Amino acid sequence: MIFTAGMPCASWLFLHTADPGREKSDIHRVLLLYCIWKVKQMDMLKQLNDAVTYIEQNLCGEIRPEEAARIACVSTDSFLRFFSYMTGMTLAAYIRRRRLTLAAYDLQESGKRVLDIAVQYGFSSADAFSRSFYRQHGVTPRDARRCIGSLTLCPPVSFHMT
Hints:
The protein is an all-alpha fold and 162 residues long. It has helices spanning 9-18, 24-57, 65-72, 76-87, 91-109, 114-120, 126-137, 141-145. Helix 2 (24-57) packs antiparallel against helix 3.
């Protein structure tokens, strides 16, 4: 029998019951490999969540996809593809949506000027910020400050095994 790390639990149980003459050491090896496979999955999820934590902690600064990929222990291309596949949006779109979500909160909770909030979240001008804000939320920053209309918020992502 050849056991691969991707073999699901039911497969090795079937193989065990199908061959009653199998030695205990073979069964222990299979169980060990399965446990290692599960631990690696858990480590991968932890590393991906650590990369998301890096992104969340740097929303007001520069976010480098290479650094997020390094934290997740994968190549930049793999990280970007995986992130896009799992969230349904590109990393750049996620960062923009998260920044605009935090900006909406700042508009309603602080007395900062729109330009100051725009610069804080990496926008080059108040106009660019206002256009992006309107595209996401459907209201202008001024209307959001006055609590006119509803906002489209983007919560932080996290990866879990179910």
